[in-house]
Amino acid sequence: MLRYILRRLLQAVLVLFVLSLLLFAWLRSLPGGPVDAMLGERATPENRAAMRKTLGLDDPIPVQYLRFVDNAIHGNFGTSTGVQSGTDAFSLFWQRLPATVELSVFAIIIALATAIPLGYFAAKRHGGLLDTGSVVLSLIGVAVPVFFLGFVLKYFFSIEWHLLPPTGRQSPDLNATRVTNFYVLDGLLTREFDASWDAIKHLILPAIALATIPFAIIFRITRASVLDVLNEDYVRTAEAKGLSRRVIRGRHVLRNAMLPVVTTIGLQVGGLLTGAVLTETVFAFPGLGDALATAFTTRDYPVLQVLILMAALGYVIVNLLVDLAYAVIDPRVRTR
Amino acid sequence: MAVTKPAAAVALVAASALTLSACASSKRSDSNASGGAKGNTNATLNFGAAGAPGTLDPFYASDGETFRVSRQMFQGLTGFKPGTAEVAPALATSWTPSSDGKTWTFKLKTGVKFHDGTPFNADAVCKNFKRMDSQNAAGQQASEYWLTNMGGYNGAKGELYQGCTAKDASTVEIKIARPTSKFPALLGLPAFSMQSPTALDKYKANDIKAQGEGFVYPAYANAHPVGTGPMKFQAYDKTNKTVTLVRNDDYAGDEKPTIAKLVFQIIPDETARKQALSAGTIDGYDLPNPVDWPALKKDDNLEIRPAFNILYLGLNSKVDPNLKDLKVRQALYYAINRDQLVKSLLPSGASVATQFMPKTVAGYNDSLQPYKYDPAKAKQLLSEAGKSGMSITLWYPTEVSRPYMPAPDKIFNAIKANWEAVGIKVTPKPLPWAGGYVTQTQNGKASAYLMGWTGDYDTPDNFLGSFFSDPKGQMTVGAYPWGATFVKDLSDADSIVDESARAAKYETINKQVMEQYLPGLPISSSPPAIVFSKKVSGVTPSPLTDEHLWTAKVDK
């Protein structure tokens, strides 16, 4: 098992290295660049050229790449030029990560808490009203774009009913103490419960918006998978043996039906960052997605590099975890 | 699976949380301002900013969002009269030029202190100038405003700034290399604000480095800005994207702060800013989309600024030789239905431009008539020039909205349709604003392109000089037979010391530009807006985006 994990990690390092090379060359081949974004429409061509030279952006791309690798080995991944000028790109990643993790965890909790029970019951009452209703709901979840959904949610919950804030992570006037930068957790740790509650209120709308796609996909996979399992011989046998419904539901149906669902969850977690770019933009939620969007418009190379590479790394790790979860759920995988 | 594993995990998490919470404790001070009566002086103003401040040291800044924050904390020697682009006293109460216009004597306000208690005096002024002038290699790139306005550092050849002398505690003499209309207006730019010499030294303000493809700022620019202004820096919460300023009770200016706290919430998406205003979580934001103006007028306080910008269509005959002929350039101009364009695509209050500067600038020529929309005349001029059915590549920017150009693609489409109507074939060339558009157009690589300018201060040179003083610049005026004369006329006009003589000279130049040269086509001026909720009053809209947010009266 350990060797398997090590081999997978080694593969990941190789993938990241090749990706960094491609990413580096691709970013620099795009027209424009950070100097344009920094200087705007006022600077003379000479000023632009001088700044490019100062920042080392006029060297040949291979030279720039070697310098980047050399710096990266020494733990320096470059300095942000647009998202938060002057901040080390990697520090910026750590600064923004808690927000996105908090948002993703909330979104996944919402998606799982609704999709798995709904999927199970929709399958149990196949063709009924609940089944049809849930399927329609999941279709809407996939089809409605985040910015539209965000707009609707904000219109009702923030503007009409004044229940939840439309943007941001925490009301600035709370002056909350920061410990881990996970705001909900920080509030609990410092016993500033109002700060926790305020952070949760800020999370609800963006988390709902972010949860729609994973909800829809997990719901449909759960439903299909439970439908399959319900028709299996061993379920009929278990019923015939007179096992209690709880045991059948838990040990036989759900456990077997969960395999494809776990795979899907893994893929969905990977996809959350993509969703977070839009969601965080719509809700001005200061996480990685928001940083990525700003980094694109300001051509902030170092931040783009770090964020995209870290997202790839995250993807690799999540996939590895999914494979390991398989092994836990399905003993057959372990013996292979 | 054994049950013990999850149980152990839960226990572990609980234990670590307990350990953590033993170390963490609330450091909160309850300084929550509560509202009450109208114009409550304990109120907080929440402003929705479109971007994060790039740095807290305005000297290294070049963007509006950064300057908006600095303008609340800092003052310059000169300032601007609220609601106008006119120079007004700030930290200097008066100034007099020598007869040759090269030595300026400033009388300073007395009894002023920086936020850290350092006295403001002539010595502090000269320390500031010395600090700005003596930049290291990275600083010389990062302080774009000094470079653009002063033309160099450390006594380099061609540098405008020549030295500062403290005559006595409240008198300063500043020498410049040549007389220019920019002086002393440019000292009102936030980039040249007076900063505490104590703090500049203590937090090593000049230790800026170029590292890892960006600029690494010293502690001063990251967390310790100290000025003399009405608001003081309190915190920049980077994980929450908020900047908090608090009232400076010792502020020596005339307009005392009427709010206790000013919070900038950074909300890059414009729709999100609008919704935050509707929901009441922010009290105002800048540059609302003209499409939203009618709705905002109804529900909020929409403040429309005086127009202090120009949208123009730049032409470059070096890239496209067809444009060498004045008749072709005039034909392109006559073919554009600017009345229609202004009416349908620009905010209410926008106007058709007759020259390369807005009406309020000294040197504006009132007698110039706009080139009226006349497709027949355009066709006739084209056939006289032998260019009927010519092709042209028209560049326009994407991923951007500017006060003078709210929707570039729509403006492009309108001009394209107009030109095609007179038989010109138009090839579109869209390019992202920061993705090459600015660089390529400014480097004179675009045949015809949309571009604009918002003035820094009220001098004709700030407009005409920015477009044409470089013969190899964006419209490459040096390539025309009249180019050299034109460039020389501009620099001569700028150094005329007498204001009315200077204005008269610029009026003549404006006439020549529009009637004989026409290196580009001025399109329009648009008034940008700023919006506050109904609960907020007392902020005067400024053509320079120099709003004094600290004068807001918040009724909560």
From TrEMBL, chain A:
Q: What are the ABC transmembrane type-1 domain coordinates in residue numbering?
A: 97-322
**Transmembrane stretches, start-end:** 103-123, 135-157, 199-219, 253-278, 306-329
Q: Quote the subcellular location field of this record.
A: Cell membrane
UniProt cross-references to CDD domains, sorted A to Z? TM_PBP2
**What does the record list as GO biological process?**
transmembrane transport
Membrane topology, as annotated, equals: Multi-pass membrane protein
UniProt xrefs under SUPFAM superfamilies: MetI-like
According to the UniProt record, one GO cellular component term is: plasma membrane
Main subcellular localization, coarse class?
Answer: membrane
Which keywords does this Swiss-Prot/TrEMBL entry list? Cell membrane, Membrane, Transmembrane, Transmembrane helix, Transport
Q: Which family does it belong to?
A: Belongs to the binding-protein-dependent transport system permease family.
Name-wise, this protein is ABC transporter permease
Automatic annotation (TrEMBL), chain B:
Extract the coiled-coil ranges from the record.
Answer: none
Domain Solute-binding protein family: from-to ranges: 86-472
Tell me, what is one Gene Ontology molecular-function annotation carried by this entry? peptide transmembrane transporter activity
What is the superkingdom listed in this entry's lineage? Bacteria
Family label: Belongs to the bacterial solute-binding protein 5 family.
Q: In its UniProt record, which GO terms are filed under biological process?
A: peptide transport
Its protein name is: ABC transporter substrate-binding protein
InterPro entries to which the protein is assigned, alphabetical? Peptide/Ni-bd, SBP_5, SBP_5_dom
PROSITE patterns named in the record: PROKAR_LIPOPROTEIN (PS51257)
Entry keywords, A to Z:
Signal, Transport
For this UniProt entry, which residues form the secretion signal? 1-24
Q: Name one Pfam family in it.
A: SBP_bac_5
Q: Which organism is it from?
A: Flexivirga aerilata
Gene Ontology CC: ATP-binding cassette (ABC) transporter complex; periplasmic space
